[in-house]
Write a structure and sequence with these properties.
The protein is an alpha/beta fold and 150 residues long. It is 21% helix and 37% strand. Strands 1, 2, 3, 6, 7 and 8 form a 6-stranded mixed β-sheet that branches.
Length: 150
């Protein structure tokens, strides 16, 4: 499981001209799922994301988590995070999980993150053509991979 976590001042997701999710200060999380991902990956990643100290404290030091600031979150599935560009110029997505595997894991990740944060979070629509807007704050962007635990 691979995530791109972005600290945002605001973010939203639009599908077919309709805004389906919108947040103010918090995290926009793009998540890519592999066939080998498990519940263990979900629990580890949701815990890591919810406690990631990337928000500034009163001294301007990144020392607070989204939990500490009572921030919001949006999770968007993005299979292209598992693109391989080793050969040629056309990315291969062979490592990305097929929908029958990815959808339940994506939904479980959203539920687990809601438990971690103690609130509902926004989502995209799995497999839809989405327009994701964000105002990256910092900018702060962190890539986390459960296979490498980094």
């Amino acid at each position: 499981m691979r995530a791109v976590v972005q600290r945002v001042s605001e973010a939203s997701v639009e599908v077919e001209g309709e805004k389906i999710s919108q947040i103010d200060r918090g995290l926009l999380i793009l998540i890519g799922i592999e066939e080998e991902d498990t519940k263990e990956d979900i629990v580890w990643l949701s815990g890591k994301v919810s406690r990631l100290r990337i928000f500034e404290d009163n001294n301007g030091v990144m020392n607070k988590s989204v939990l500490d600031i009572n921030g919001e979150a949006i999770v968007v599935s993005q299979f292209t995070l598992h693109a391989s560009t080793r050969k040629g110029n056309r990315p291969s997505y062979i490592k990305a999980a097929r929908p029958e595997t990815a959808i339940p894991l994506y939904e479980e990740f959203v539920k687990q993150l809601e438990l971690e944060l103690g609130k509902n979070i926004g989502t995209g629509v799995f497999g839809a053509d989405m327009k994701v807007s964000l105002l990256n704050d910092g900018p702060v962007t962190i890539i986390i991979d459960t296979k490498n635990k980094e």
